[in-house]
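Handout, section B. The chain below has 495 residues.
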Amino acid sequence: MYATVASATVVGVDAVRVTVEVLVSGGLPSFTIVGLPGAAVQESRERVRAALKRLGHPLSPSRVTVNLAPADVRKDGPAFDLPIALGLLAAAGAVPAARLARHLAFGELALDGTLRPVRGAVSVAVEAQSAGLTLLCAPANAVEAAAVPGAAALAPRTLAEAVAYLRGRVALEPVSPPPAGAAPREHLDLADVRGQELGKRLLEVAAAGRHHALLTGPPGAGKTMLATRLPGLLPPLDTRSAVEVGRVYSAAGLSRGPGLDLTPPFRAPHHSGSEAGIVGGGSSVRPGEASLAHLGVLFLDEAPEFSRPVLEALRQPLESGVVVISRASGPVALPARFQLVAARNPCPCGRALDDDPAACTCSQAERLRYAARLSGPLLDRVDLHLTVPRLTREELLAAPPGEPSAVVAARVAEARRLALERQGCLNADLTGPELRRLAMPRGEGASLLRDLVDRLRLTGRGFDRLLRVARTIADLAGADAVGPEHVAEAAAFRV
């Protein structure tokens, strides 16, 4: 007796289609799972055996072989419990194979047959939708999957309910997708920030062009306060981008709530995080904080305190927007097109910028070692640099509130609209001939740019990033061409 069931496994953030083949034959009683199963997949034998017994279909004493094809892709996690159980029932004739063939099943089984959610539902839903299959999964996973446009997800609560549906005895309706962005998140308002006008301007430029930024200043100057208000300036994600972000979170076993969350993600990991935790990896490759910040903001507070391997590992995704984890079985690509905002003190004690030179207790060697924790190649990939000064007494006591985030966000949205209509991408993504054609200044601006190349000792990468920032500043001003004033402001943020 032979049967097949469609299922899927998650590799990185992508779902790989898996065919679960079940063969029940004569011979000594055994239950073997082949096809590079992980430990959790091997344990499916006991969960499936108990769930079938609870259903009233105990396994007969026979030789059972389950093959997970393709056999060269490693399968991890308990998601194959449901398809293996349904395959055994189909091989025994208890479930119609023709009806089962129109579905993709995944989910963990409790010993009593209850369906439990597993990670990767959004990625599996994308795969099922492209294959024209209907999902059979736990209710919590069905809610996630239903948010994928065009996906149909059924949510049986137990194995018995799934079997009754496949036999045609009960009706299961596809889960309705929750409204996108039904519960918008509250953001911290830029109006709460007193003083720091240059810092607010940096946030506006960074948000408009999706540029990376580094804030340097003494403790308490407002670096973290500024960085945490950047999400309130970003426009909401479109549906396609929200699905991309949802895939990453689902693959990591996290949830952004019901429906498509249109809020750009904001991640602020602690500096004690490991390389696998920040960049991604592990024995079964999972997304790290860099991927969880995909299409959003990755904030590194006290950036020099992060380990050197972690910081250097961020250099690749800062350029390409992808983290590539190399394994013996092959590379795994994780999306990581994030916007980096980093903050640091000027020295280990944080007082190097004080008016009183004696306030800093760090030696010159300690300052140099501290500064060297952020390497030159990493700093060269950061578009906007700013020294954030300590607030004056007048700013602390009597500074008026600044512009609210909603006002600045409107200017950011307009600048992004201009960029997208002109070139189809944000300014941070401009490259090659398009960058030269759209961002190269003329006349006096070109002369100033030539002087800046020598004065700032710009690398090729630094030159391109300066042009991109100047193009963003011109968009915020509503200018068609990049002028000398835009180049000058971009250069001020490059120093």
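Note. Residues 95 and 407 are 60 Å apart (CA to CA). Compare this with the example in section A.
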